[in-house]
Amino acid sequence: MGYKTDIEIAREANKKPIQEIGDKLGIPSEHLLPYGHDKAKVSQDFINSVQDRKNGKLILVTAINPTPAGEGKTTTTVGLGDGLNHIGKKAMICIREASLGPNFGMKGGAAGGGYAQVVPMEEMNLHFTGDFHAITSAHSLLSAMIDNHIYWGNELEIDVRRVQWRRVVDMNDRALRQINVSLGGVANGFPREGGFDITVASEVMAILCLANDLKDLERRLGDMIVAYRRDRTPVFARDIKAEGAMTVLLKDAMQPNLVQTLENNPAFVHGGPFANIAHGCNSVIATTTALKLADYVVTEAGFGADLGAEKFMNIKCRKAGIAPSAVVLVATVRAMKMNGGVAKADLGAENVEAVKKGCPNLGRHIENVKSFGVPVVVAINHFVTDTDAEIQAVKDFVKAHGAEAVLSRHWELGSEGSADLARKVVEVADAGNANFSPIYDDDMPLFEKIETIAKRIYRADEVLADKKIRDQLKLWEEQGYGKLPICMAKTQYSFSTDPNLRGAPTGHSVPVREVRLSAGAGFVVVVCGEIMTMPGLPRVPSAEAIRLNDAGQIEGLF
After folding, report:
1. Which parts of the chain are coiled coil (predicted)?
2. Which residue of 233, 268, 398, 515 is 20 to 30 Å from 346, comparing CA positions?
3. 383 belongs to the catalytic site
């Protein structure tokens, strides 16, 4: 039996004018800034007007470690949101925006799949409403102003060897990881080493996703450390006098983007930090606004629960004062088999033993999420090759770990296929058994926070960090940054820092290569193993197959 592609399904969508989607949430049309007919930004005035309302219940969707077999976290997030509306609940979805880097690299689209998608798909995976371009421009403005300040006399006495602020571009381009700038003689400034990160790793992206409003945004931008003097005292973005102009560039980008699912249910798509190198959650302003507009808000955190969910709990919830009522952990039979040692080409054949062998990865994620005091529901994202025996093996394993697994067929059937999952999530969320708490206190020393994550979440035996890194952490504590949470930059493919070590490894170490202070965002980034904050393209990038067909439609992006 043949199945339509995601883009074929998306193009057949019966989209409603965005004003009708706003009506479902009680957003008057004058508070919507339309971008075409099917997407719009929500005004800050409206957001301010609903702050006295009671919050709905927050549902976090996370997953096992990603495999080439596919897990479908965003697809499940969308399917669950549609499923909740299908069973008569007022629900909406909050997800992140897609980066051009992986879209033209190897990941493809980021709007769900099958009959559980957010539309308009093409726009969401390309320029959308321009938020990423605004973030890149604001970041680049600060980069230019730093070098300009140095050129015109360096009144702040910046040590050009200690400029911390790297440049960004929203594309996978490994050639830019380490560069020399200001070459070409006196007229071009003072030569120094620099480098690029991908836009989603920018502290500006993190700040936009954690700020409460424009005033908070401007304050945080000003608090960013961009360089150090010879005496090691920090130079802030506010010293460069850049935060005002950066805020102007980000004014519209701060407003959440309203779109719709294939079933015309509302969704906020806003912000896009990666979870392997950044904090991996959509914006605080989108999530907190959604909680005022719906009874159930379904949001996702990037990659596996060891990254996205950990950062959602320890960073986003801590900073925003929110807490999930339930967590949905997405797994697939195919991924269990791959964790059990089956090659991708052989995943279609029934192999119950491989499923059982691969389940410990799922089991560890269940234990980790429960350690935050939040109940877990496992969603088995159904593939047509799954057999009853394989599905039952996953259900039995999950039951033995004190949770329940529900088969969900949203990819194939839309909300009808996710109704059972939605009912179970409502049952768990409404039971009120969540007792959320981060796994470390603000007052814990920075290195102990790193060790807590490594040992409790990754199950590592130790954290390896040389004296220079430990001394840097102690210096930041002395400067008043000791209460900040930790943002781990680590491979998404494993609990360890070795991307090839699947399953539930123990006895490993976590080597820390570098630490970066994101004083404006309000966390310390810990770069582990070989993870890169500027990805590279694969041998055969998706871009090679992306083009316009004779009808002017995009092909190859999805």
Report:
1. none
2. 398
3. yes
pLDDT per residue over 519-542, tens digit each?
999 999 999 999 999 999 999 999
- Is 73 a residue of the active site? yes
Q: Is 96 assigned a catalytic role?
A: yes
> Before 120, cis peptide (omega within 30)?
yes
Structure tokens at 289: 């606004």
Per annotation, catalytic residue among 274, 383, 447, 523: 383
Tokens of 13: 């969508």
Q: What is the pLDDT of residues 465-502, one digit of tens each?
A: 999 999 999 999 999 999 999 999 999 999 999 999 98
Exposure string over 527-540, b if 16+ CB within 10 A, otherwise e? bbbebbbbbebeee
The residues, ordered by sequence, that sit 6+ positions from 511 with a Cβ below 8 Å of its Cβ are 463, 464, 465, 497, 528, 529
| Domains present along the chain, CATH in parentheses | 4-127+252-429 (3.40.50.300), 129-248 (3.30.1510.10), 444-525 (3.10.410.10)
Question: H helices of 16-72, where?
Answer: 18-25, 44-49
> Could you say which DSSP state residue 283 is in?
-
This model's pTM is above 0.90: yes
As a whole number of angstroms, the distance between CA 425 and CA 433 comes to 12
256 near 50, Cβ under 8 Å? no
Residue pair 273/255 in contact by the 8 Å Cβ criterion: no
- In a 3-state reduction of DSSP, which class is residue 201? helix
Helices (H), 182-213: 203-210
DSSP letters of 87-99?
TT--EEEEEPPPP
Q: Is 395 a catalytic residue?
A: no
What's 281's DSSP letter? B
Is 74 labelled as part of a ligand binding site? Answer: yes
Q: Per-residue confidence at 179, pLDDT binned at 50, 70, 90?
A: very high
Phi, psi angle pair for 65, to nearest 5°: -60, 135
288 annotated among ligand-binding-site residues: no
Q: Residue 455 catalytic?
A: no
Q: Which of 459, 309, 321, 421 is nearest to 370 (CA)?
A: 309
Listed in sequence order, the residues at least 6 apart from 264 whose beta carbon sits closer than 8 Å to its beta carbon are 14, 15, 16, 20, 21
CA distance 112 to 73: 8
